[in-house]
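Database export, one record per block. Field names are fixed; values are copied verbatim from the stored entry.
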Amino acid sequence: MKSLKSVLGLIFILALANPLCSEASSEKNPLAPVKTDNPRATMRSFYTAMESYHQGLEENDPQLEAKITDAIRCLDTSTLAALTRSTEAVDAAIYLKEVLDRVIVLNYSLIPDDSEQDFWRLKDTEISTRRITEGDRSGEHLITSATVERAGEFFKKVEDLPYLKGAGQGAGYKEPLLQRMLPTWSTDTFAEIAYWQWIGLFFSLLLGLVVRLFARLIGNLIHAFTKKTATQWDDILIESQIGPVSLLVASLIWLSALQILKFEGFVMTVLSGMTQIVLVSSMIWVAYRLADVLAQYLKDVASRTENTLDDQIVKLISRTLKIFIVIMGVMLGAQNLGIDVFSLLAGLGIGGLAIALAAKDSLSNFFGSIMIMVDRPFQVGQWIKVGNIDGTVEDVGFRSTKIRTFYNSLVSIPNAEVANSDIDNMGLREYRRVKTTLGVAYDTPAEKMEAFLEGIKNIIKANPNTRKDYFHVVFNDFGPSSL
């Protein structure tokens, strides 16, 4: 009996010493990750989160409504377009919950809990999960991207079925107000697209073109106003942006229309892809034109300096910036189309190493051009000697320096070679050396020879274009027939 009392007393003391234990065990950690370790855990996490979301809708509880984010964590959304991914993922989660409650009462004991199982499909459906094998979610089991993309299609097939007894009551799905107001005939389909969607697509295209035209008119009005100002840079800036900005506005109209028209599946993928290509292209166009304006400004600044190499620096900056804009724009566009660009770049492996080795010379020439710009051993227009090449510098580019020789050919020397060579800049000479050898008869006496040398020195001193502090006039050799 004493032993039992001692044990109870010890338990009581431990409970007092750690009062947070009861709270921690009774209240779920809000930072706990969504369970996606196996197909059973994934389906349970998804269904539980969607039940909470539905309850939140009925009780107007924002915290419960936010549980839909947990459900989305159970979906493979990697193939959805980045710009519309969040909206499409929400729709897919709602559709899937509506489908499940109409076709099956989930029995979790029949869903495998094997974390090594690569693929699992819900009985008599095309709803499935797959184990992710790469990326930051590697090892998790997610509802497949194919299921996510076809969720709307599945819902259309079962939307007239009642909820099953023992299942949930859907996800609070309500047909959009626009669709409820449409006449019956407009819901019929042609080429798997409803008539009302065809009509909406036509008017959205028309609206985008009208908005683009309106944006151009506004741009032209602003441009007319800026022409009256004292500065010219506002004119150049506005004029450069009229075309690309008007296309950007139109593409945003078209992208918004796709969400309103509720296209799904393959049709949505194609239309969304085309719209995003236009959107990203217009963004690249905007940035490219801004780079032109910046280059023009830097060119004007460089033209005020005596150093002609500044003009080459401006060219280099302009070219680099434009290449950077195009590359980043293409990467952004690919990412928005669902292509994991960074994983693709990281996965190049040996191919990436081969590309890097192949680009070694190009990189060394690029850094050579930077060293030339920083060190400034010569300017465009100056006469230089690099190795056995002798001529006037015409251009300094990314890869090479172009020199016009005195027999009028154009020689391109890699910048890495120029940067590592001894450069003799003849254009920086303060004086040009003239060396002339004169022959005097052997029978000339020494006195006359000295007088002859003094006479030449006096000629040099009297000439206004010669250097007076450093010249040599000397007798230095016995030639075969003269002194």
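Remark 1: The CA atoms of residues 99 and 157 lie 9 Å apart.
Remark 2: The radius of gyration is 39 Å.
End of record.
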